Recover the amino acids of this structure.
């Protein structure tokens, strides 16, 4: 039924021992097979929950802002003109890629990488002043947005002022030189064995909360920084203001501190599936593994593109072709939080340069704005799509399981049914699952569908359907 998991009994328990860091616990996860559905829930988290997510995060969405490429000016002020449009599209949370100054030493390209910081408590003059950013945050929040900023805690650029003022804040090789352990030539690693560095990093993060009132952090390569640092940082920062914490990691143990984390594996495996490297059953197994490995309260971030993917591996259309839209529907409706990257609403079909100026080519109308608006508004209004532990999520059985991904989201009396044709074939399918019953409304067409009378469905190649009850 689901890939290589061919033989099921009514109730099967999986137990895994996750020896990947401090606070080790055993994680028990159960998958209940009832009426041919695969139910996902966790009977016990494999780590204690030290922090509670801010309430607004459960039904938010995230829009990644690439300030440099967003407008010809590439400034905070120029981006602010897009706020009304993004608000109308249903965007809730704005994530700004690093806004700090970029090192000149070992700079890549003409403008350098955002992730090579030379000062944690000022803005990149390319984008504007600190007051410009403060005003942008205030304007965005007044319009109803939340604002989070990218935080690069593992390394700095070669000419960060700490290299001269506090060289002990950095790791050194056997020659006594600063270095980066991953081969990234424009950055050098920080030393989290040094208590002064830890205090200085937390103070720098406090700066943006106290001075600009940001609502949270997206923490770059979070697993490269010790978990106990993040625990200390969140404890101190949440005391100022409850914040949202997003980790770029797939290490479950980091959910001891972080609210949300990346689904890199799903993104890579969907690409492998489209290229014919894995089967559809293998792809479904990724979703099962997600549930086994991560605690039920973990918010997972789903996406088809972001700054790294677009620049280095190609746009979602290069990677997925006609599957780009059904995968976008998946990202917006599956259990977790959807991410949209700058320009996906156009849709942008070019790779944006990473180290040089390369503006998004906006048009008067963005063809996919109505598509995203429908999905984001549904997510905001329907409790079944909330990223809460108690919200049910289960795969549904059909007679076309090697081509169609079908799943249901449920909370109380709210149901969302999603069908994704992951093939180039016309599909005439039938639900073999007793959980699909009653009258639903097709969110995209507005038509009523009664699955209690007719359990069949039809999908065009790479088509999708989203229904509510």
């Amino acid at each position: 039924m689901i890939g290589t998991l061919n033989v099921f009994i009514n109730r099967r328990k999986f137990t895994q021992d996750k020896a990947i860091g401090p606070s080790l616990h055993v994680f028990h996860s159960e998958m209940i097979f009832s009426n041919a559905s695969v139910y996902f829930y966790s009977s016990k988290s494999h780590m204690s929950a030290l922090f509670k997510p801010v309430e607004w995060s459960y039904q938010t969405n995230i829009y990644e802002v690439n300030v440099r490429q967003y407008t010809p000016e590439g400034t905070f002020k120029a981006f602010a003109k897009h706020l009304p449009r993004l608000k109308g599209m249903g965007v809730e949370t704005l994530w700004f890629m690093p806004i700090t100054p970029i090192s000149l030493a070992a700079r890549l390209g003409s403008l350098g990488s955002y992730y090579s910081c030379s000062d944690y408590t000022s803005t990149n003059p390319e984008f504007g002043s600190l007051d410009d950013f403060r005003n942008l945050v205030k304007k965005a929040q007044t319009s109803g947005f939340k604002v989070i900023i990218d935080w690069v805690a593992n390394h700095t650029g070669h000419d960060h002022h700490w290299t001269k003022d506090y060289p002990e804040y950095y790791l050194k090789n056997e020659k006594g030189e600063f270095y980066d352990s991953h081969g990234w030539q424009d950055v050098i690693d920080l030393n989290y064995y040094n208590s002064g560095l830890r205090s200085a990093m937390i103070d720098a993060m406090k700066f943006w909360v106290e001075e600009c009132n940001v609502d949270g952090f997206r923490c770059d390569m979070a697993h490269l920084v010790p978990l106990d640092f993040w625990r200390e940082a969140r404890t101190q920062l949440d005391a100022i203001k409850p914040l949202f914490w997003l980790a770029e990691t797939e290490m479950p143990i980091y959910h001891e501190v972080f609210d949300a984390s990346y689904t890199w594996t799903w993104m890579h495996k969907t690409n492998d599936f489209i290229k014919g490297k894995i089967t559809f059953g293998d792809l479904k197994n990724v979703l099962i593994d997600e549930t086994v490995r991560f605690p039920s309260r973990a918010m997972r971030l789903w996406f088809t593109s972001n700054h790294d993917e677009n620049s280095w591996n190609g746009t979602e259309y290069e990677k997925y072709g006609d599957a780009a839209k059904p995968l976008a529907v998946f990202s917006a409706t599956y259990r977790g939080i959807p991410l949209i990257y700058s320009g996906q609403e156009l849709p942008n079909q070019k790779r944006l340069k990473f180290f040089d100026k390369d503006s998004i080519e906006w048009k008067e109308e963005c063809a996919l704005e109505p598509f995203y608006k429908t999905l984001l508004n549904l997510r905001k209004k329907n409790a079944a799509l909330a990223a809460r532990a108690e919200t049910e999520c289960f795969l549904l059985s059909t007679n076309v399981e090697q081509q169609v991904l079908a799943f249901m989201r449920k909370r109380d009396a709210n149901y969302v049914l999603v069908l994704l044709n992951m093939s180039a074939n016309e599909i005439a399918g039938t639900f073999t699952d007793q959980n699909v019953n009653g009258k639903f409304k097709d969110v995209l067409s507005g038509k009523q569908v009664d699955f209690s009378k007719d359990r069949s469905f039809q999908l065009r190649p790479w088509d999708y359907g989203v229904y509510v009850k």
About this structure: The chain has two domains: 11-44+392-468, 55-385. The chain has a mean pLDDT of 90. Residues 195-212 form the longest helix (18 residues). Residues 51 and 257 are 6 Å apart (CA to CA).
